[in-house]
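Researcher: Structure for this, please.
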Amino acid sequence: MNIGISALTRFHMFDLASEMEARGLLGNLYTGYPKSRLPESLRKQSVCRPLPLMGIAAARRCSAFPALQGDLFRASTCAFDAAAARALKPHDVFIALSGQSIRSFRRAKELGARIVCERGSSHILFQDRILREEHELQGLPYRPIDPRVIDQELEEYEFCDQINVPSTFAADTFCEMGVPQAKVFLNPYGVSLSLFRPHQKNDTVFRILYVGNMSVQKGITYLIEAVTQLSGRSLELWLIGPADKDTEPMLRNLPSNMRYLGYKSREGLAAYYSQASVFVLPSIQDGFATVQAQAMACGIPVIATTNTGAADLFEDGPEGYIVPIRSPEAIADRLQRLMDDPALLRHMSENALKRVQSIGGWHEYGERAAKQCQLLLAS
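Model: Predicted structure, C-alpha cell format:
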C-alpha cells in the first residue's frame, strides 16, 4: 500500500506522515514547509512547495484587515493545492486536509487513488452557524466563512471516499448535516509522550491554564468570567496563545491575578503545563483540541466543554470534567471543587496522567489510520 499525504501547514499531518513512514506505507508528503523544517525521516519522500506558505505567513500578519487576510489565506491555499496537484504521483490512498485539496483530490482520483478528506473540525456549515450565534451573543460583528471556502469544502466532502474526523462531536455534526455515517471515520489525535511529561511545580499557587488561540470560538470570555467567580486561596489564570482583534482589548484589561503570556512554542509548553494546577478549554467548537492530551500528559486534569472532543479522551469525573458550552457557572463550580479539595485535585491529576498514558501516543493513531486505509482499499 502506497499512501500520499498533503498538507500546506503542519497541523497533525506530519505526525500522520511519520507514522505511515514508520510502517513503510508513505509514498510522498506534499507540503509547504521547506525540507530543512521537516523531520529527518520525512525529507526523502517530501515534495515541498514553500511559496504558498509565505502567503499564509503574510496573512497572519494582517489580522487588522480581515478581508485582506481572508483573500491571502484563500489565494495561498489555492496556490498550494494547484502546485500539489501538478506534482502528484500515483498513490493507492491519498489523504489531504479539507479546504485546500479539491484540485489534488481530482488529480489523485485520475491517477487511481482512493480519496480521504481530513477534517480537523466540525462540519463547515455547523461551524459557520455556531460561530455566527456566538458573535451575536457577544455583541460582536461576524465575518462569515468565505462562501468560496464553504463551497469547496462541501465539494470535497462529496468527492472523497472517506472523511476523517478526530472526535465524536465532529462526527455527529457531519451526520446532522446529512453526510452518511458510513463515510465518516473517527480517529482521535495522539500526543507526544516524550515531549509532554510532568515537570516539578515550583509553588503552591492554584494556577489555571489555557493554551490556544485567543478567539471568540475558543470561549475565552467564559473562562475569564468563571475565574472572577472563584473565592478562596491565592489563584492565577495564565493565558497562552496568539490573540485576534476581538479579544485583544479584553486581554489588555485583565485583573491582576490573570496574565496573558502570548504565543509560546510547542516545544516549550510542557514547562507551562507543569506549573498549572488545572487546564481549562472553554471552546464553543473544537474538532479535537490536542492541548487537552498535552495537559494530561503533564499530569494535570482538564475541564473542557462538550464541543472539544473531550469525551473521546477522558471520562467526566475521574480524570477531568466535561461541561456545557457557554457556562461560566459550570466551569467555576468545577474549579472551586478542585481548589477547595487538594486531595481530589491530586487524585484527578494522577488519573489524568494514567489515562493519557494508557491511550498511548501517535503510534496508536497511526495504527488506526493504516488499518482504515487497508479497509478502504479492500472495499
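Researcher: Any notable elements?
Model: The chain has two domains: 3-190+362-378, 206-359. The mean pLDDT is 92.
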